[in-house]
Amino acid sequence: MVVGLTGGIGSGKSTVLKEFESLGIPVYIADVEAKIIMNTSLEVQSKIIALLGKQAYHNHQLNRAYIANKVFNNKDLLTQLNAIVHPAVHQHFKKFVALQTAHYLVYENAILFENKSEELCNKVIVVTASKENRISRVMLRDHIDREAVLARMKNQWSQEDKIAKADFIIKNDDVLLLKEQILKIHEQLMEINL
Ligand code: ATP
């Protein structure tokens, strides 16, 4: 069973994921795997170079600053880049799933709904936190200002829209209540037989 994990920037997805890992649950972090695939798949590399130019790679390593700059204000290019990367990640993920023996695994993707990856999931968990908490956490973590956090938030679905599509919700405003919520969801997931 594939359990998607998503939530807005700074909601605490990575924090929640660590708890699932400590329960022995396999996890797949879409963003991390996407970067590895962009650096290692020759097919993906050649498609990205065809789209964005040779400078997209430097010594066979992704030139992230160049790519970010290219697609930042160009929705069309971003869509085309996603159309290269997402199918490759989905394919890799399906192979990963086929190798698992655990009752369920967690698939973390910050833009699970935005890129329709919920189609890969049997259940979806949404991590939530108040906007102010999310902003101040990301400012502290990434050493950026409020405007920069808000700019990143603008590219994501609203928390309300995500909640509407969730099977489970984890409220991460008070860290003391986090483990308890995760354990409860874990127990429920262990009871589900698809
Ligand atoms: P992003 O989408 O930006 O990757 P995320 O949803 O994975 O973010 P985390 O990295 O888990 O969020 O959390 C953001 C920051 O807030 C981290 O520095 C984390 O340690 C901190 N944090 C997470 N949960 C709490 C909490 N309940 N109380 C205080 N700080 C928290």
Structure description:
This is Dephospho-CoA kinase. InterPro entries: Depp_CoAkinase, P-loop_NTPase. The structure is a single chain. With 194 residues, this protein is α/β, with parallel strands linked by helices. The chain contains nine helices and seven strands; from the N terminus they run βαβααββααββαααβα. It has helices spanning 13-22, 30-40, 42-52, 64-71, 75-98, 131-142, 146-154, 159-164, 178-191, and strands at 2-7, 27-29, 57-58, 61-62, 105-108, 123-128, 168-171. The longest helix has 24 residues, at 75-98. It is globular, with a radius of gyration of 17 Å. Bound molecules: adenosine-5'-triphosphate. Adenosine-5'-triphosphate binds at residues 7, 9-15, 110, 137-138, 141, 172, 175.
Index terms:
194 residues; alpha/beta; Rossmann fold; two-stranded antiparallel ribbon; 14% strand; globular; binds adenosine-5'-triphosphate
